[in-house]
Each structure stands twice: as C-alpha cells, then as structure tokens.
Amino acid sequence: MKTIALICAYNEEKHIKEIIEKTMKHVPNVLIVNDGSLDKTKDEVKKTKAKIVHHEINKGKGEALKTGFDYCLKNGYERIITLDADGQHDPNEIPLLLNKMDEGYDIVIGARKREKMPLIRRISNKISSRIISKKINKEIKDSQSGFRIINSDILKNINLETSNFDLESEIIIKAAKGGYKIGDEEIKTIYADEKSKMHPIKDTLRFFKVINQSKKW
C-alpha cells in the first residue's frame, strides 16, 4: 500500500533533520507540515528529501494534521504514519506498527509504558485513555499517543471538526463509531529535552469538550 509519514513541526530545528533521516530508512515518502516555525526548522527540512508544506503562522497540531491529511489524500496515499518531530517517537519502531496493521487493523496506535512517563503526563494519559475506552467500548491503552498509522479510508469518511491536540481523540472516537478496527502496539517511552506543546489546562478542557460533543456524532 502507498504509505507516507506525516510529521508536524513547530520550532524543531534541533531534532527535525535526524527524525526525517531515521524515518526515511523505513518510509521513503515523508511530509513535513511546518506549522509557522520561527526558528530554522524549514532550513533543516530543506537539507533532506522530505516534502514540505507551510503554515505562515502557528495554527496548532490539529490544523497541521488536517493540512497534512489533505495533502496525503490528494496524492493517493493509503496509509499515513504520524509521529512527533521532537524525538519523543523512535522512527525505528515504524515496522512494528506496520506489521500490526497488516493483521487487519485500520488504525494502530503506539502505546507507551506509563510508568516511564513524568507523573503529570502519566495521570492525564491514564484518565483520558479510560474515558475514551469507555466511550467507544474498547480498551485504548494510550489515547494521547501521536505515533500512529491510519488507513486513509477513515479520513475520507469522517469530518474532522477540532483544531488542536483534541483532533487525535476525535479521530479515535469517530473511527470507532464508523466500525473501523483499532489496535495498538507497545513502543518506547522517550522523554529527553523536548518541551510538550500541549497546554495542561486548555488542552484538558478541549479534551472534555470533544467527549461532550461526541454525543452528537
């Protein structure tokens, strides 16, 4: 199947080139959505063979993902791998997710071990994953993980309404309601010098708003 890796980047000049090069060892097609970066992210991407599209201003992860999804669908990609630009996801684990998807899944989520997470992330991850699991009547081990593979058919058949990190929860809920098969694969839990772009209050409130909105979906 025609596969592409989608990486959304905002001020990731330190990591982005290495992430692209590692990713290309497993997936030759890589798309970077440069989400209004103010540093040298764009220059670092240009040193690689990755494709790149730009937001003139920072719009947030959800809008960056939607821009990337639109590109992937217009260019006929059938499987879309999403991973972070800050080094929190190991591209060398892409084959693990691909092999899992070959078992018949429509989405495969990379599930991190919670015991290796910082405390605040461990708590928020556990709560959000439990809420979504209950909502869709299926265990989701790591609902906040952005390391995923998505079958493009899902994106063709659902309307994405959110604009930030809550988009990743929206995809899970709508895919489940559409009868798509969701699985997970254990991945490394990596925390180094990266700084999360998530806002602990705003993005928590957005998450609960998505859960409330999902009653209408």
Characterize the structure shown:
With 217 residues, the protein is of the alpha/beta class. The chain has a single domain (3-216), classed as Spore Coat Polysaccharide Biosynthesis Protein SpsA, Chain A (Alpha-Beta Complex), CATH 3.90.550. Helices cover 39% and strands 18% of the residues. It contains eight helices and seven strands. Strands 3-2-1-4-6-5-7 form a seven-stranded mixed β-sheet, sandwiched between helices. α2 (41-46) links the parallel β2 and β3 (51-55). The model has no long low-confidence stretch (mean pLDDT 91).
Structural class: alpha/beta
Number of strands: 7
Rg over C-alpha atoms, rounded to the nearest angstrom: 16 Å
Q: What's the CATH H-level homologous superfamily?
A: Spore Coat Polysaccharide Biosynthesis Protein SpsA, Chain A
Tally of structural domains: 1
Low-confidence stretches: none
CATH-assigned fold name:
Spore Coat Polysaccharide Biosynthesis Protein SpsA, Chain A
Report how far the terminal alpha carbons are from each other. 30 Å
Q: What overall form do the CA principal axes indicate?
A: globular
Average pLDDT reading: 91
Per CATH, the architecture is: Alpha-Beta Complex
Bin the helical content.
25-40%
How much of the polypeptide forms β-strand, as a percent range? 15-25%
- The ordered string of helix (H) and strand (E) elements is EHEHEHEHEHEHHEH
Q: What is the CATH first-level class name? A: Alpha Beta
